Amino acid sequence: MTSHGGGVPTVVARFGDVLLRNQASIRRLQWAMVAIYASLLTVPLLLPLPTHADYLWNNAVRFAQFVFWGVWWPFVILATALVGRFWCGILCPEGALSELASRHGAGRAIPGWMKWSGWPVVSFISTTVYGQLTSIYQYPKPAALLLGGSTFVAIVIGARYGKAKRVWCRFLCPVNGVFGIVSKIAPLHFRTDADGWRTGHQQLGRSNAVNCAPLIPIKTMQGASACHMCGRCSGYRGAIRLCWRNPASDIVRGSGRLATMWETVLIVPVLLGLVPAALHWSDSGLFQVIRLWLVERCLDLQLAWPLSLRLPWWILTDYPLKNDVMTSVDAAALLMLLSASVAAATALFGIPLAACASILRMKRGLPHHLAQALIPLAAAGLFGGLLSLTISQLRSDGIVIPCTDLFRGGLVLAAAVWSVVLAFRIAAFYDPRRAARLWATAVMAVPIALFSAAWIAAFLA
Ligand code: SF4
Question: Which distant-in-sequence residues (6+ apart) come within 8 Å of 14 by Cβ?
Fold first, then answer.
């Protein structure tokens, strides 16, 4: 699909070279993104909260809310699945600021604790739960605190560690793990050709050094999970090119084979458990059941304070003028619902994964590799769930886009079928017996079908 060395570069390979040659323009674009990001975070803080008479086209608070949660969050996920992590390498203001700070910073060695593989999971869970407790999608103050705080820490980390690197993005960014997982199904990637590397010569007109800001060993690069698609290594030694790939190839034959326990945790309990509950808890009947049960327990124990205790907005939602206050009982009910959803997803997918490992004669790494088959389902569920924010915000302003729920349902259904096909193809890696592969695939199809049916029902409700 692409050429290496002396071949003629394809159109996408040439696009990689365009990125390489236009790094100065990309930096200017990043400064524009920083300015837009800073305005969207700070201007709403200076304005009163919107009323029912305010719309996204005449109110800066509503506009910023729509840009962050109705456009940025869902469509960056979609773009990552379709073309890889170009957002990270070209547009992300936080990554750009962290790299800038690192260029002029202390340049210290990266400490060992920062390289712990669990950070992407821990930071994503923490920010997701905190965002729900403080109603980040509805109010500018928690959005400024969480996003602005994250950017501040990114700059501090950049100023201390690495030299012109994105240490924050590589190890600590709350969405790095999710972007890395979702980008595995992207049909575009920068590929290193090992033979080309050995025999290749440097392209005329490019410098010898490649500053790969997210610290990827480009010579042995596997897959596109960590790559920010910045283009700086395009054409290096005539061996690295932007090229098309089969969207299943990384999961089935590439980095999927090296999948870790933390990736499985991110896919199963987090993306397939925590995220759906976090996006739909306010409409959940189970949330009301849990809340009522907690209220009754408090009354039984003659404990009145948990029913009325209010905490500051930066701990729990507290906007009495908007009639929107989350009491400690509401917060406890939310945390219990999220925990129940995590436990349900773990059981729903974990038991079939263990059963498949047994059917396919348990091999080392098999359950984690098989869990990668769920990436299309997790990505479609995440995008479809986040699209609820877009749809509900537009609907509240009187804009109804037809067939969005059917589109989301169809997307989840297509992703579910793809996940089943991937499970079958991964099983072929571990067991040549066709009957065992079919049996294992059928076992995996059950939770996939149940999960997608639940998501589709939620979309169409
Ligand atoms: S491997 Fe590194 S330098 Fe190359 S495109 Fe990806 S992030 Fe940029």
Answer: none
227 within ligand 1 shell (Cβ under 6 A): yes
Per the prediction, the chain carries an average pLDDT of 93
Q: What is the pLDDT confidence band of residue 309, given thresholds at 50, 70 and 90?
A: confident
Mean pLDDT of 180-187: 97
Give, for ligand 1, the residue of 27, 86, 99, 216 to mutate: max count of ligand atoms closer than 8 Å to Cβ.
Answer: 216
Tokens of 137: 């999608």
380-399: average pLDDT: 94
Give me the half-sphere count of Cα atoms (radius 13 Å) on the Cβ side of residue 208: 0
Ligand 1 centroid distance, CA of 334 (Å): 40
User: Above 80 in pLDDT, residue 9?
Assistant: no
DSSP strand pairing (240-244 vs 318-319): unpaired
CA within 13 Å, CB half, 451: 38
Q: What is the largest CA-CA distance in the chain?
A: 80
The C-alpha atoms of residue 433 and residue 418 are separated, in whole angstroms, by 21
Other Cβ atoms within 10 Å of 230 Cβ, number: 26
Q: Is 3 left (phi over 0), alpha (psi -120 to 50) or beta?
A: beta
* Residue 310 pLDDT: 86
DSSP notation for 246-274:
-TTHHHHTSGGGG--HHHHHIIIIIIIII
Report the pLDDT value the prediction gives residue 202, as an integer from 0 to 100: 60
Q: Sign of torsion, CA 157 66 336 372? A: negative
Whole-angstrom distance, CA of residue 105 vs CA of residue 103: 6
Rounded to 5 degrees, φ, ψ at 166 are -115, 70
Nearest to 246 by CA among 313, 185, 197: 185
């109010």: which residue's tokens? Answer: 139
Q: Where are the domains of the chain?
A: 1-247, 259-284+331-460
In Å, how far are 208, 270, 324, 437 from 305, measured between CA atoms?
66, 32, 18, 56
Q: Give, as one character, the DSSP assignment of residue 91.
A: I
With a 6 A CB cut-off, is 231 part of the ligand 1 pocket? Answer: yes
Whether the per-residue pLDDT at 1 is higher than 50: the answer is no
